[in-house]
Amino acid sequence: MHIKTGTDIIEIDRIRESIESTDGKFCERVYTKKEIEYCESKKTQKYQHYAARFAAKEAVFKAISELLQNKYQINWQDIEILNDENGRPYVNLSKEIKGVETIDISISHCKSYAIATVIVCY
Predict the structure, then answer these.
(1) What domains, with CATH codes, occur in the chain?
(2) Per residue in 8-37, pLDDT tens?
(3) Active site residues
(4) What is the pTM of this model?
(5) Residues 6+ positions from 65 with CB-CB distance below 8 Å
(6) Which of 21, 76, 79, 107 gets the most CB atoms within 10 Å of its CB?
(7) Are 84 and 60 in contact (CB under 8 A)?
(8) What is the pLDDT of residues 71-117, one digit of tens each?
(9) Alpha helices of 44-119 — where are they, by DSSP H?
């Protein structure tokens, strides 16, 4: 078994500006419908949740990039970050990436930054 990690950190204001300046087109390109519904439900803290999911998608890509090696084309929406019934985040890949056995994820955010770390076993 091999283990790969990915980590990403992003400024929340950068995501807020991307969302607001594109009149929602950024969200449509990057996030799934379920992710948008979740983030929008957070009202005044929605940009923190959008940023955390963006960082999580980047971290997933970093962790699985070695497995892709031009065999798979994935886009932002192929990596979906959801929460289980206890609020714990998990990764849903819309395309099966050969070899991926498990993906563990941790995300966090504060007033200015969001961060995510991913561990992939394959």
Answers:
(1) 3-121 (3.90.470.20)
(2) 999 999 999 999 999 989 999 999 999 999
(3) 62, 109
(4) 0.95
(5) none
(6) 79
(7) no
(8) 778 999 999 999 999 999 999 999 888 889 999 999 999 999 999 99
(9) 46-68
